[in-house]
Amino acid sequence: MALQTLTFPVESSLGVRLNHSLLTQETASDRLLILLPGRGYTLDFPLFYNLRRAALGLGWDVLNVQYGFQVAGVELEAAHTPQLVEEVMSGVRPALERGYKRVCIAGKSLGTPLAAEVARSIQDAQVSLILLTPIGGAVQGLGNIPTLALVGTADALYSAHEVQAFTGHPTVTWRVYEGLNHSLEVKGDWRASLHVLTTIIDTCESFLKSPHQSV
Hints:
Number of helices: 6
Structural class: alpha/beta
Order of helices and strands: EEEHEHHEHEEHEH
CATH superfamily: Alpha/Beta hydrolase fold, catalytic domain
Mean pLDDT: 94
Number of strands: 8
CATH topology: Rossmann fold
Number of domains: 1
Distance between the termini: 27 Å
Helix content: 25-40%
CATH class: Alpha Beta
């Protein structure tokens, strides 16, 4: 599999250059996966590394989005939020101009409300969402956007009530993993973490394979 990389450079208001990178298939693809990291969970962490590999193996192009505060090595502050949204869109816009028919946005924690906002802004493609440990009501108000939400019961932000509220929902599917923390890992047990990582990526892969992107 020969991949090509396109870079969309953007100057952040924090004084650093962001290089949003698009990995493209050798033969033009009509499917795009957009990856939006968490506050401390970057695109090099296991969930994103393996989700990216799975998507590329299925023939999707993959857009890796950077955040200015991470590149600058500073703490995220409320004042950075408007710029953070614009940084995300600055990577997404040129990628979407390639005319993809299907677009899936995968966000982790901080990236989940951003993913929802991006999904609602796309008009000319079939859109779906993978929300890894969603926060801030990211699963609310998504309309008919097919959505896969994943969370662990040992995550401090896990809400059984929120998950139960979506029972039978036509487009939002929750996957709840017993004992997993906010990184979707088993604290202190790398073997168990690797084992469940396979299950999580398999679930995401099935979602990407589905023509209606539901599992």
